[in-house]
Amino acid sequence: MPDFNLLVTLEAVLAEGSVAGAARRLRLSPSAMSRALERLRRTTGDPLLVRAGRGLVPTPRAVELRARVSEVVREGAALLGPAPKLDLQRLARTFTIRAREGFVENHGAALITRAAAEAPGVRLCFPLKPDKESGPLREGTVDLEIGVVGLATSPEVRAQVLYRDRFVGVVGAGHALSKGRVTAARYARGEHIHLSRRGEERGPIDEALNTLGLERKIVTITGGFSAALALARETSLIATVPARQTGKLREGMYSFTLPFASPEVSVSLLWHPRLDADGAHRWLRSLVVAVCAGT
User: Fold this and answer.
1) 90-119 burial, b if ≥16 CB within 10 A, otherwise e?
2) 217-235 pLDDT, tens digit each
3) 3-class DSSP state for residue 255?
4) This prediction's pTM
5) What is the pLDDT of residue 1?
6) Which of 2, 21, 137, 153 is the most exposed place for a label (fewest CB within 10 A)?
7) How far apart, in whole angstroms, are the C-alpha atoms of residue 152 and residue 142?
8) Right CATH number for 167-263 from 3.60.21.10, 3.30.2130.10, 3.40.190.10, 2.40.480.10?
């Protein structure tokens, strides 16, 4: 296996034209430099520097190598050194942010506007998030995910809480619950849309009602916020959805605070650790955090 440290030694020797000068440049003793030169001569099969009067002159092979060695050493230093400072004005990259419906409606426009102002060569893509599997983050097909950390989230995935969300009840304009005080009993007596991506029959809202001795009638089950709200808008059914996630989706409808204790959820920013130190990805993460915080 070649010793690539010899390239640095060779570059110094050829640039200085003397063992003493190369030793000073590399902060080596003259004897250590002489031993390094001997190794170079054995490796290249050429004396490289030969005596001419009181000085040393390069051989034709040394002259041939001089420019190439300097270039290789510079490239090696660039490869092994810190990443160059991020220039957002020249950044050309597509980022994929996967989230459930509601995120793009609430934050997508602000993200695109701010990204265009800071990094005009950046494009943001927003595919829907059908599940909580971390495979796309691990495989690199997704740069960021927005969601709730769950059992399906890989333990290696990094997470940063964006905000906490609470559930609200939502009905169409003119619904009976849009008038008067909403009690737990009135809420439970209505007909409900249950939200479950996996099609489960019951969830945390039902558990909260059960502690009060109440049970709601579930008429239908949907897997998405948009579908639940569309049904509630056109029928007398009640949808129960996260407030912040569905802000714009609920426009024109009547929303009310649930009249009983219900679980809050922490919505997080998720990414794979291999992107931790990537300057462009760090900028993107800070952008999402700022937009979701309203700053």
Assistant:
1) ebeeebbbbbbbbbbbbbbeebbeebeeeb
2) 999 999 899 999 999 999 9
3) strand
4) 0.71
5) 58
6) 2
7) 16
8) 3.40.190.10
